[in-house]
Write a structure and sequence with these properties.
The structure holds two protein chains of two kinds.
Chain A (H helix, E strand, L loop, with lengths): L1 H23 L6 E2 L5 E9 L20 H13 L3 E7 L5 H10 L6 E3 L9 H5 L12 H4 L4 H6 L1 E2 L2 E2 L2 E13 H7 L11 H10 L13 E3 L12 H4 L18 H15 L13 H9 L6 E7 L1 H7 L6 E4 L11 E10 L5 H13 L3 H11 L2 E2 L2 H4 L8 H8 L4 E2 L7 H16 L5 H16 L2
Parallel strand pairs in A: 2-3, 8-9, 11-13
Antiparallel strand pairs in A: 1-2, 4-11, 5-6, 7-9, 7-10, 7-11, 7-12
Helix pairs in contact in A: 17-18
Chain B lengths: L2 H9 L8 H28 L1 H28 L2 E2 L7 E2 L3 H8 L1 H33 L3 H16 L2 H11 L6 H8 L11 H14 L3 H12 L3 H9 L4 H12 L1 H16 L3 H6 L11 H10 L4 H26 L4
Antiparallel strand pairs in B: 1-2
Classes of the chains: A alpha+beta, B mainly alpha.
């Protein structure tokens, strides 16, 4: 009995030892088969996108929102025997934090969908060598098919650090039912000046039931580090946060100060915005415009996703308009670029296969399909020319705004700079500081970071 | 040979440290005793090896998931964290940056105000609530115990979301009630002078369930004879509560104050969900700042230094609280 026990324990120990050793082993770099092709596993992260029509499976009845990428993976695996692609499903809300933690722990995936201006991956990561440059995998002709601002977003020190897949813009969303109720004419072709916008906002602020309290406000938005819905308003007179060479703080220029104060005054002086405007409640602000039970705000600026939400989850009679023009006379908006990023690889052979897969999921056909099904604007000119929004005038209108896009400054310390500016903007919008005072406070702090 | 040393060697006499030789011998004696103590511990461990074997899994987990990260964080606080390359040793630069940072000073002030107000309030209200419930019948006791404990098992995320709605300027509960009373509405979370207090009020109004349960358990163990003696001496109910109940509950009060202080210095969920630290830096707190430094800016060395400073703040306050609250013991 004692002997059997010893044998059992020895076997158990041996199994444990093997398991530990195999866990310690790293086969992520794969191997090369007899034909010289790389074989091994590629890991890709993605968030939920869209489900096949009629698919209502899953707990929330949303269907399998990963079926598109699963299909592309299957195709690629069949064409490349020995290559296995592992899809890790990550909810979009968790993507920045999860990616951030994995980057810090050096356990990043091979590919992930990354908005390079977003919170998970930054210029600092590129500087530290976490992201692989992709120039070697694209010809000049292939590069020419992408919009210039899309390529710019992923370009740093003349190297391309991702394949642009989609462009998003911020646009003004106007609730046409409220416009009609207040007897206000919506801007023709979505184009208007600042004065016309203020006039409309004032008229759209009204007491519906005659109880002496305002029920509907003309405009609202929020101010929070990392979010830029309100920012195009600050550019309309020619202002910008940093100088072109990124060496100086520029939001203290008269053009920027005037624009910032004018938007804050829409609440503080014109009283055409609710007291909560300029707060930090993102969800509450959107609900005030979109939720059927509320709809207490007639106009709000949002990113592209809100258009699709207003067409599906919160059906609303709305139109897409430009941000109003200021003294420059040119409409302006802020955009973001989404795309696929390759994380640091140890093996050149694997890098080639990873790049090949990335290209296969971001070619013209895939970008066209994604635009139609997922409500984003293609980053490839050829996909845009296929007119994915021929039957969706609101998305088509927003897509036209892509030409007005200005990108946020590409500075390694941008997140900290952004926080300093946005914290001060919050104080302007709650009336505790003037725009001039706030930007004067921000200036030395920002310039200290610019000088580092 | 020195006569003190001879006496020490032969009789284990430990001299007073009023002379240089005495001080050296006393130190030597301490080492000797420590050695003996270690030997004794070793012997005891061999004797009770089965018990230590049972404790081993927990000790390994404790070492892996608590001791190692704490030591690593401490070491990291002297380095600049690099993701791909090796970390750079920067000695005290991270600590210098912590103490020069305006955001850290503001976060420390906010966290201190939050703690100074919420901890005494929560502990005192738990004591009062437990005393009132303790005097009720069995059924009522169970009902109130469960009712007050319920928020403790509810996620802070849910509580914060509900409170954010209650603080909403346009349609929140508080402004609605204030409107009915003819009062002007307040932009609770949107103004620098009210945002931190809104968070504090929220924490004060969430019943301190753990405190109530612990106080009630301690009250049950107070001997009835003390109350009977006080009754004979003519003490009324309030006097008995003040002179018997409260002093007898001192160990529980010390424990709850420490627990509550540590928790308050780590306030995070309600900040990230309700204000994001704003407006301005009005509700910035230490743990929220550490989180941002680590996971937004990826400056893990600096975040580790901030964590170490927070650790020492909590440690010093805890020791002081323990000494002050236990001074009559």
């Amino acid at each position: 009995m004692k002997g059997k026990m010893k044998l059992f324990l020895s076997v158990l120990l041996a199994i444990g030892f093997v398991l530990v050793l195999s866990a310690c082993g790293d086969d992520s770099d794969g191997a090369t088969d007899e034909d010289g092709n790389w074989t091994g596993t590629i890991t890709i992260w993605d968030g939920p996108r869209w489900a096949e029509e009629g698919d209502t499976s899953g707990e929330e009845g949303k269907g399998n929102q990963y079926f598109w990428l699963e299909g592309k993976i299957k195709e690629f695996e069949e064409a490349n025997p020995g290559v296995k692609i592992e899809l890790v499903q990550v909810p979009w809300a968790e993507m920045p934090d999860k990616l951030g933690v994995n980057i810090a722990g050096q356990s990043w995936p091979d590919i992930a969908p990354v908005d390079i201006s977003g919170s998970a991956v930054s210029i600092d990561h590129i500087d530290q060598g976490v992201i692989e440059p992709l120039n070697d995998f694209f010809t000049e002709e292939e590069m020419g098919d992408f919009y210039e601002n899309a390529l710019d977003a992923y370009t740093y020190n003349d190297k391309l650090y991702g394949i642009p897949n989609s462009i998003t813009v911020h646009s003004m969303l106007l609730n046409l039912d409220l416009f009609e109720e207040a007897g206000v004419k919506a801007p023709e072709n979505g184009e208007w000046t600042w004065d016309e916008f203020v006039d409309a906002a004032e008229k759209l602020t009204f007491d519906r039931d005659g109880d002496g309290k305002i029920d509907v406000y003309g405009f609202s938005t929020y101010i929070l580090p990392g979010y830029y819905e309100a920012w195009p308003f600050f550019y309309i007179n020619g202002g910008q946060p940093l100088s072109d060479d990124l060496s100086e703080f520029a939001f203290d220029s008269p053009e920027a100060i005037e624009a910032i104060q004018a938007l804050a005054d829409l609440k503080l002086v014109n009283e055409a915005a609710p007291v909560s405007m300029g707060g930090a409640d993102v969800g509450g602000t959107f609900q005030a415009w979109a939720s059927e039970e509320q709809r207490t705000v007639a106009m709000e600026p949002w990113a592209t996703w809100a258009i699709s939400s207003a067409q599906t989850a919160n059906p609303t009679n709305f139109m897409v308009a430009n941000y109003p023009t200021g003294s420059t006379g040119e409409p302006v908006t802020i955009g973001g670029v989404g795309g696929w990023t390759m994380f640091k690889q140890e093996s050149d052979a694997k890098k080639e296969v990873v790049a090949e897969f990335m290209k296969s999921i971001s070619d013209t056909d895939e970008q066209f399909l994604m635009s139609q099904s997922y409500g984003i604007f293609p980053a490839r000119i050829s996909a845009a020319e296929m007119e994915p929004f021929a039957e969706n005038p609101e998305m088509a209108r927003a897509q036209e705004m892509s030409s007005q896009v200005v990108m946020l400054p590409r500075h390694p310390e941008w997140k900290k700079i952004d926080e300093i500016i946005q914290r001060e903007l919050q104080l302007v919008f709650n009336g505790e500081k003037t725009a001039e005072e706030a930007m004067a406070t921000a200036k030395p702090e920002v310039e200290a970071l610019l000088g580092e | 040979m020195h006569k003190l040393y001879t006496k020490y060697k032969t009789t284990n006499y430990i001299p007073k440290k009023d002379s240089r030789g005495g001080r050296i011998l006393q130190l030597s004696a301490r080492f000797k005793n420590a050695g003996k103590s270690l030997k004794r511990t070793g012997k005891e461990m061999r004797k009770n090896y089965a018990a230590y074997l049972f404790l081993l899994p927990k000790l390994i987990l404790f070492a892996l998931f608590i001791v190692v990260p704490v030591v690593w964080a401490f070491l990291l606080s002297f380095q600049e964290y690099r993701i791909v390359d090796s970390n750079v040793f920067v000695f005290l630069d991270n600590y210098k940056a912590v103490f020069e940072s305006e955001a850290f000073k503001k976060a420390l002030l906010n966290t201190t105000i939050y703690t100074v107000v919420t901890v005494p309030f929560n502990v005192i209200t738990a004591l009062i609530a437990a005393s009132l419930i303790h005097s009720l019948g069995k059924f009522a006791q169970n009902f109130f115990r469960a009712a007050f404990y319920l928020p403790t098992v509810t996620s802070m995320v849910i509580i914060a979301m509900v409170w954010r709605w209650m603080y909403n300027y346009e349609f929140g509960l508080f402004n609605h009630v204030m409107g009915l009373l003819g009062m002007e509405p307040i932009n609770w979370l949107g103004q620098t002078d009210s945002a931190l207090w809104a968070i504090i009020i929220m924490q004060m109004l969430i019943p301190f369930g753990v405190g109530i349960i612990l106080y009630m358990a301690s009250m049950s163990s107070i001997s009835e004879s003390l109350y009977e003696a006080a009754t004979i001496d003519g003490a009324n109910a309030f006097q008995k509560w003040l002179k018997i109940t409260i002093p007898m509950l001192t160990p529980s009060t010390v424990y709850l104050t420490l627990l509550s202080t540590i928790g308050s210095f780590q306030v995070f969920t309600q900040i990230i969900l309700m204000t994001g630290g704003g407006p301005g830096y009005a509700t910035e707190t230490l743990v929220h700042l550490i989180y941002k430094t680590g996971f937004r800016d990826f400056e893990f060395g600096l975040a580790a230094a901030q964590s170490v400073v927070l650790f020492f703040i909590i440690f010093v306050i805890s020791v002081l609280q323990y000494k002050v609250l236990n001074r009559n013991k």
